[in-house]
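Structure, all four chains, one model.
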Amino acid sequence: MPQLDATDKALLELLQNDSKQTNKALSLSLGLSVTAVYERIRKLEKSGVIKGYVALLDKKQVNRNFVAFCHIKLVQHSQDYVVRFEKQVANLEEVLECYHISGDYDYILKVLVADMQEFRTFMVNKLTKIDHIGSTHSMFMINEVKHSTKIPVP
Amino acid sequence: MPQLDATDKALLELLQNDSKQTNKALSLSLGLSVTAVYERIRKLEKSGVIKGYVALLDKKQVNRNFVAFCHIKLVQHSQDYVVRFEKQVANLEEVLECYHISGDYDYILKVLVADMQEFRTFMVNKLTKIDHIGSTHSMFMINEVKHSTKIPVP
DNA sequence: ATCAAATTTAGAATATTTTTCTATAATATT
DNA sequence: AATATTATAGAAAAATATTCTAAATTTGAT
């Protein structure tokens, strides 16, 4: 694990806000030369601190504005069952996030589709076709208050 | 709302996977000229389909690997209370996502901190300091099965 | 504290990429 | 079918990323 100094942290914050800034712009923000910025970024990429760069889309504009949170309980919790379940869930493109969690349910999923009809189709044809699911409980997004990909760097 | 053809959709998928690809690389993938790719991207940016470009970090490497999901119920639901609550929550950097949802609770939050100690500090000093919170219920991530920012384009 | 090694930085040179420009081709409109 | 609009390609120009060299700074050991 690499040691991040204050400049690295500032740089990570800038790149998490906008990764399309030029190194010159970054160098001005940070008070460094272009090469210094370039080398720092390279290091952060190589060490895996920066996982990658992506474009973020507007859900509404691509007609995927229906968000559901599905809680799932498995019928059994043997290694095999868990591994198989997780693989199958990860393969569903509608499932953007899946976490194994503590509490009454085993998993929480964030599912993205166009509307309730599509969600129904997803449940019937995809999710509940997965083996070893005991029970599910879904909640639906009424409004998105905040959605950020920006991890605060300590 | 702009009409997206198959090429736009393919382009959006490519850019959601890796926004650092050059236009030449994209043009090869799509079988177009560099200029055609350039103009399409410009259009997608201007119309707001592409909201922006960001660097994605590795939670573990920046010591923010503790994820909590907090369900929150408000004591009242008047316009004023809701607006104030949402503003205050959105200002907390530990809260990466916040959704108003259907069901037993009003909101679900995704909170990112270093560890349980920090989570406790967050709850005591920040979250529960927010007005009008009735009750909360937290679940903790045991394992991240999937976490993608990629919206499937229909 | 002092020295040597390693790392970081800056500025210039080079390579690559983005952006603009012009002309042509495809698509839509009447 | 004729015209206007939009999309595309290729070349030229501008901007940017990357490499290189050398100087400066930091680090670690003595």
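The CA atoms of residues 45 and 98 of chain B lie 25 Å apart.
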